[in-house]
Amino acid sequence: MLFGVLIGIVERIVEERRVSRDLWLRELGIDLLAEPGRLTSALLHELSSPFEIAPHHHAAELQLDLIEGCSGSVFHNGRWLRFAGDLVLVSYPGRTHGYHLEPVENVVERSRVFNFKLRVRPNWGLIEQHALPFIARPDSGERRLYDIAGAIVRTLGEPTNPRVSALVHTLALLDGWPTRSAPTDLTEPETSEADPDVEAAVTLIEERLHAPPSLAELAARVGVSARHLARLFRAATGMTPHRYATIRRVDRARLLLLRRGTPIADIAEDLGFASHATFTRWFREHTGETPQSFRTNPSVF
User: How far apart are CA 256 and CA 295, in angstroms?
Assistant: First the structure.
């Protein structure tokens, strides 16, 4: 008798979740098909060496990351968590996220990460309810998510005006996304709770990507010694302030390059470079390709 009651409760919960997902997915789908530009980014990175995205957040974008065949750390709930294998991440607007990834040797599949961004409405059910878990491991039945992610990248077309097929694949990706809570096998490499001095330094860097502040300037603005700030910053982010600023500046450059109507010379100026040539040399040094090359084929970086 009790077992039957429990089964009934579980079935009702499953049905409620299914109905809820159908509702927010339909709501999102209507807006996405009406405004294809809401899919602002669809990228693939094939790992042959360590790859990192510094902790940051987006004011009005939802970010989806599908990590495959990698090891490293992800920034979650104000701390770094170590993992190995496959992982999928959801970063809601305003939520700080980032990762350090390394390819795993002798894996059957490639080591890679897919990255998608959606410009969202704050009243979407997905956003209001945080309907998808922040972090999850796909099971064997959810491996098709990586195939769907690949289809989005292949069919994207013009980044500023994605094809309908890419939008449909995006909805399929969200529909198949795991709903389980965060995995319990992730470990903390070290204690790294958010520090107000580090947060202040990060804010200043984000405001000054066109002219990144030096460590001495950051320390003076925050009100601590340069050595102390450097130690705090590395403990919280795993990198120096200079490295963080460089990564975020590269991220900003890529985002601007996706807007194909903006001349590269204007992007160079917006980012604080003296000339198109100086910007090109800097971009090639940090990404291995020229700005024009990335603009021509932005799906793989």
Answer: 10
Cα separations (Å) of 57 from 25, 210, 261, 281?
Answer: 23, 18, 25, 28
Q: Which of 172, 165, 94 is nearest to 127 (CA)?
A: 94
Say how many C-beta atoms besides its own lie within 10 A of residue 285's C-beta.
10
CATH 2.60.120.10 fits 14-175, yes or no: yes
Phi, psi for residue 185 in degrees, rounded to 5: -95, 10
Comparing CA positions, the residue from 105, 75, 28, 40 lying closest to residue 239 is 75
Residue ranges in 133-225 assigned as alpha helix (H)? 144-155, 164-175, 196-207, 215-222
249-287 pLDDT tens trace: 988 888 888 777 789 999 999 999 999 999 999 999 988
Give the Å distances, CA to CA, from 75 to 44, 291, 298. 20, 28, 25
Within 13 A of 26's CA, how many CA atoms are on the CB side?
A: 6
With respect to CATH, is domain 196-296 assigned 1.10.10.60? yes
Helix ranges (H only) for 73-193 are: 125-129, 144-155, 164-175
pLDDT for 88 equals 94
Residues of the chain with CATH 2.60.120.10: 14-175
CA distances from residue 49 to 111, 189, 211, 293 in whole angstroms, order as listed: 10, 21, 28, 20
For 12-58, the pLDDT digits (tens) are: 433 444 457 788 899 999 999 999 989 988 888 888 888 888 788 88
